[in-house]
Amino acid sequence: MHNKITNWTASDDAMVENAIRRGATRRELLSMMLAGGVAMSAGGMILGRASDAIAATPKSGGNLKAAGWSSSTADTLDPAKASLSTDYVRCCALYNRLTFLDQAGIAQMELAEKIESADAKTWTVKLRSGVTFHDGKSLTSTDVVFSLKRHLDPAVGSKVNAIAKQITDVKAVDPTTVEIVLANPNADLPTILSQHHFMIVQDGTTDFSKGIGTGAFKLETFEPGVKSIFAKNPNYFKSGGAHVDSFEFFAISDDNARVNALLSGDIHLAASIKPRSMRLVESQPGFVLSKTTSGNYTDLNIRLDMTPGDKADFITGMKYITNREQIQKSVLRGLAEVANDQPISPASVYHNAELKPKAFDPEKAKFHFEKAGVLGQKIPIITSDAATSAVEMATIVQQSAAEIGMNLDVQRVPNDGYWSNYWLKAPIHFGNINPRPTPDILFSLLYASNAPWNESQYKSEKFDSMLVEARGLLDEAKRKEIYGQMQVMVAEEAGTIIPVYISNVDAITEKLKGLEANPLGGMMGYAFAEYVWIDA
Amino acid sequence: MRTFVLNLIAHRLLIAGLTLLIVSFAVFFATAMLPGDTATILLGQAATPEAVAGLRAAMHLDEPAVFRFFRWLAGLAQGDLGTSYVNNVAVADLIGGRFVNTMRLAGITTLIAVPVALTLGITAAMFRGSLYDRIVTILTIGVISVPEFMIATSAVLVFSVYLKWLPALSFANEVTSFWQVLKVYAMPVITLAFVVSAQMIRMTRAAVIDTINTPYVEAALLKGASRPRAVLYHALPNAVGPIANAIALSLSYLVGGVIIVETIFNYPGVAKLMVDGVSTRDLPLIQSCAIIFCIGYLALITLADIVAILANPRLR
Amino acid sequence: MTLSTPFSSKVSYSFSWVGMVGLAIIVFWAVIALAAPHIIPYPIGEIVDEDYFGPMSSKLLLGSDYLGRDMLSRLMMGARYTVGISLAAVCIACFTGTALGMAAAVIGGWFDTILSRFLDALNSIPSKLSGLVVAAAIGSSINVLIVMLAVIYTPGAYRFARALAVNVNTMDYITVARTRGESILYIIFSEILPNIIGPLLADFGIRFVFITLLLSGLSFLGLGVQPPYADWGALVHENISGLPFGAPAVIVPSLAIASLTISVNLLIDNLPKKIRDRSA
Amino acid sequence: MENLVEIRGLKVEATTDSGRRLDIIKGVDLDIAPGEIVALIGESGSGKTTIALTLMGYTRTGCRISGGSIHVAGKDMVTLSERQRAMIRGREISYVPQSAAAAFNPTKRIIDQVVEVTHIHKLLPPAEARQKAISLFKALSLPNPEQIGDRYPHQVSGGQLQRLAAAMALISDPKLVIFDEPTTALDVTTQIEVLRAFKSVMKKSGIAGVYVSHDLAVVAQIADRILVLRNGEVQEVGSTETILNNAKHPYTRELLSAFEPKPRGDNLGAVSQAQPLLEIDALTAGYGPIQEDGLPLVRAVQEASITVQKGRNLGIIGESGCGKSTLARSIAGILPASSGKLTLDGQQLAPSARQRSHEQLRELQIVFQHADTSLNPAKSIEDILGRPLTFYHGMKGSQRSARIDQLLDMVQLPKALRSRTPAELSGGQKQRVNFARALAAEPKIILCDEITSALDTVVAAAVIDLLKELQRELALSYIFISHDLSVVEAICDEIVVMYRGQKVEQITPAISKIPQHPYSQLLFSSVPKLDPNWLDSLERDPELVKAYGQA
What we know:
The complex is a heterotetramer. Chain A has helices at 28-33, 50-55, 85-94, 141-149, 161-164, 189-192, 255-263, 278-283, 312-321, 324-331, 362-372, 390-403, 418-421, 439-446, 461-472, 476-493, 522-525; strands spanning 45-46, 63-68, 99-101, 107-109, 112-117, 122-127, 167-174, 177-182, 217-223, 227-232, 246-251, 269-270, 287-302, 336-338, 378-383, 407-412, 428-433, 496-497, 500-509, 512-513, 533-534. By secondary structure, chain A is of the alpha+beta class. In chain A, strands 1, 2, 9, 10, 11, 12, 13, 14, 17, 18 and 19 form an eleven-stranded mixed beta sheet that branches. The longest helix of chain A has 18 residues, at 476-493. Chain C is an all-alpha fold. Chain C has nine helices and two strands. In chain C, strands 1-2 form a two-stranded antiparallel sheet. Chain C starts with 10 loop residues before the first strand and ends with a strand. Chain D is of the alpha/beta class. Among the domains of chain D are: 5-104 and 175-259, P-loop containing nucleotide triphosphate hydrolases (Rossmann fold), CATH 3.40.50.300; 269-377 and 442-515, P-loop containing nucleotide triphosphate hydrolases (Rossmann fold, 3-Layer(aba) Sandwich), CATH 3.40.50.300. Chain D contains 22 helices and 20 strands. A six-stranded mixed beta sheet of chain D has the order 6-7-8-3-9-10, with helices on both faces. A six-stranded mixed beta sheet of chain D has the order 16-17-18-13-19-20, with helices on both faces. In chain D, helix 15 (381-393) crosses helix 16 (397-410). Chain D starts with a strand and ends with a helix. Classes of the chains: A alpha+beta, B mainly alpha, C mainly alpha, D alpha/beta. The interface between A and B is large, with 47 and 46 residues. Chain C: Belongs to the binding-protein-dependent transport system permease family. Chain C: InterPro entries: BP-dependent_transpt_permease (IPR050366), MetI-like (IPR000515), MetI-like_sf (IPR035906).
């Protein structure tokens, strides 16, 4: 069960979204922003057919059908509230952002023509002209102001309220120009604006069930928890628009059922399948796997402010007893890269390759457990299928620990309510973090002393000041060095064990063309509908 | 005599009403006990204490549970199922279409499963002790001992993935013709029919055997009636009561127990809706779904009682 | 048709071979369940196979599961949970339901009405969904599972026992006991119970099957036994991806469930009969 | 004259629980001439019904015909296929069951069941079949012959139902009708009407009959020939005349002697100063919701006042529905009386048994009609008898065991029975255990509710003798409730006649007080006598029958 119900982690999937597009303009300003992006991933590729896809000519027509893995009555078309992968897919079909991230992780212009700032504090956004909403109304600066200001209103309940707070003022200068003022300089603003939540909606919208946006598809049917049907938007501002005539999207929460639906030809794409289903897909002619290596990871969090996490030796012991190779090989069937307990994956240019993963060493682990005086005690670990592969990881750690006489009591709790009731709260629990476009966002969200999701309650003044320092730095090498040091600090000091970076695997029919690697998320960063075509 | 029967039926309805009241009470307080504060969950990371307090007041969460219960009950009585906490849509709208789906699936399954189960149960009773009877008995136990997700998954693999005869999903394909209805509903219906038939077969067989051993069936045989006639014409009408009860109990499963089938075939029914409700702590939705299941159950049971009353001339 | 012929004093038992086969299978699983921790070839959490859904081999007699763990070990340990939880739950459900059902039949009146309404109400909530709500409310441990399953199946046992007891309650020997001045408890346990124990056992069997199945259904919904342990239903579910390959990991636990439930019912349908050898 | 039925060496075997086979019919020969009525008589279990059913080629579950031949109208029922037998059943041979109430399907209208035979065998078109049924209803003197068939079985009385069952059997103009104790379940006043109806129809149409019964007096009225059966073997065959007057076989004599007038143990003189033991004063009891006057809707017993003297026995007689059983239940406190007073040995009794003291409950015991339902089938005789000993007298261990032996001895049962369960006893043995349980309480008075009606004549007589003997030894009093006058006469000092909930008359046979009330007269005159001409010569006042008869 891969139901990510009320999964706040997933709610930030949007932040890492990028898109691949023909003919996008590049601005000098953006080259400066490269620092905030993520490098082209070596892992991201479409198995066996990447070159074909690039070479092929898109075909028009057909009805695209795809299935995600989670959906509920909480499904929404309000980008500010989007929290599930299915929400992002729908929003990507209906709306556009000011910027988007390309496959190299570089922010590109979408609804904005250019975004400029002299001091990285006051920003001027020049909007593309001739963009119309589905209802015929033209896009103006008031729409942008409305869309951005919504995130600051607590009544809206925006998922990115914490990030949006740095925006102190948004105003329309003229119908195509918007001015954004930040509390402090932040060179990453264009990257931040590429997150799904910052999609542009029409001024004054309160009822989002109509899904009026500027996107490549118009909404036809939207049944929360059931399905959505979209029709190609003939007036899309990008030349050509979508290739398919219509797009139907829904969720099949059962992994097997999702794979079977694909194999039986009912759908073109089954998102995020479990490693154990790969063999079936591979054995069937006409189907392929699309693998995306990104910064997604499931981590074991040991709170430093609670027993037994308050004993540093316990944490060290846990790090040694975690058999990362076995998790990578058996749990994830190779669809993962061994990690070194810090959140910046090799897909990022800021990844510190010097920092080696701790080798599996039961003897050292035993030594540290003994030193912490916990050997033989019954230590509860909360896990749930809500976090990808967390249950399997827990059993592997449990088994290794059992062999040195360490009694880890794995308690699986239901998916439902996991994120609100256990995550961040239990002394030892699992989390699942989706990729973020910049180390700044990752560290701010997860490791700064005041981070909202400080999973292990890691607090370090030195770390906090380094974070602020790096954020303002324009010297790329210096910035990389600081981020490198911060990675070491997290790996050594924080209570989060990140055993592997997990690849996302989408299974698709060979008829579906144009789906390309995206280093930051499956389904082309959830925006695939606009780019793929069906080769009948 | 007529008024007597009407009184009996009125009594049954009264009992059903009373049960429903108890159920609504139980449902309300059971769901109210779910951990996790609704307001906090709804507000998510924007959950400042003031916002939480405000939302709680707006949703009447700050009132004692008893008040909320009566407020809810009064709403129910007026047909107002409340508003979903999660997306501010009237619960009735959320349930509406799903309810039709659930009823359609249940209805089609009933049309298939009941005649098959009755035929098997009655014939097994008719030829009690024969090889046929033994096979039916063993098969029914065999079938109910296979988890339904196993039946469903195997069916999908065979008929959708390998043979490609039937779609793997039940709603993904637009249904326009009768033929398509057959194709789309075939697998969920067969899976469910497997699950609900076994008990019906067992109970029908037992009920008919009970009446076969009566003097009036013997008398019919001694009139020269064939065995099928003795069973169908004489034994069966007297077994209507217990059979109706068994059918009602089995069919009640089709209203709320089909969550696994709904999940595997991605069929948008009420059971899945309720699971959604549990995940999102959408209390009005959970409560309404639970009440719908209870009404379904009580309606079936009461209907079975009434059928039993009407089938018995001594009460008529 | 009774014939009064001279009584033979010898008492014998007849036990059909079908019942014996059922008993043998149950005993087999019970022994496995008891001995499992001592006889499993590998720790059940240990990954022993680089591959997954491995076939049967001399090293792994029943192949490996989706993580490459030994299926034989997992199946043996699973017996503990399937047999143990189901049995405990069915015992509690049948005992409570039967006791209440008999009491309702004997006491009658308001006690009967209120209890019947209450349990009917309980019965009207679909079992898997109430399981989900309970698990969401108080989490799922083995004890919670047992109590939950028991509560879900008590109303059915109650209904059944009550219907039987109501019939027996009209018998003259109950009236005799009442006019003798016997207590309710005596009437319930000494006069009624022995006369309905047969059908109750048959009900017990079918309820056992339902509980086993509900347990597997709950594992589908993510509730159930804590890892690395798993009941058979959970084993089927976690390995169901192996179904297309006919992996033993999914076939074997399915067969195990079927063998247990079928044999319980075979045994109960063919319990040893005490035979006093008399005519007709 | 060619025989209609020729049975030669018939053997029927039954399979026991343990799979052992044994013969229950051990080589029976039987001939029936056309138009002749032959009675099969014997106690329950003698095989009389089994033989009768084999005439239709039918055996009940677990039995099968294992030998011999059964020729009916030239066809051997043994060798025919099931389909061929079905062709004959209902058409050439038909069956009138013991309890028509049970043999009618409760969910079908009577007429549909009566004409079903003609439908099955395609004998008549439906309309004609209906007409024929109605003419049969007339011939069987059923009231409202046109409409009665449109009712459901529960809407007509037992006597009517029994005649309707006969109509069902006769509608196909069969060659042979099997009557299986067709009047046993009826009241005596009703029985006469039914017997008369049967007899006249049979004689008129010249149909042969097999009449199965345990009641010699009834058989004497209708049969040409009698076959006495015991343990699946023919004991004696002869014309009715011969059997009644010149019986050779000891068992037949025993049967006959049960009808002889019993010598009365005259204990009247011994208890000359009559002391009231149980006083029933203006007792009213019934069922249904309580009305404004504080009495129930249906008053089964109204204002009955009866006194039982110490050491003497009171009989309560009346036909079904007269309220005699309700009276017994009220006295025992099972059905609390709505009004009236009960006094036992000077102490007033509470209406409900629950409110009575332990001692009071012990002193008044009740024995029910059906030993089958009165004895818990799951318990051994030892447990059944031991419980009141422990409960009332606190006995345990060897003391209790010794007392159980004593009790078994008292009711003349072998000690070996103590480990058996009721199902392993015969009807008479069960009734003795039932009685012994009441004795175990050491009561002052025992209420006997129809305790002999379910027993065969010979067995019933033995039980009555036992009761008398015990009374002499234990200084007991009985209240003996029955519909059978001969039984009550045999044991009671005084007889109360009840009719429709009311005490009609109290008579004392010992001092030749003869019934005065017209109902009592009707009742007393309806008891069949061993005289074959009794039925034909019996003259009853049609007005009386109309006023009190229930048929």
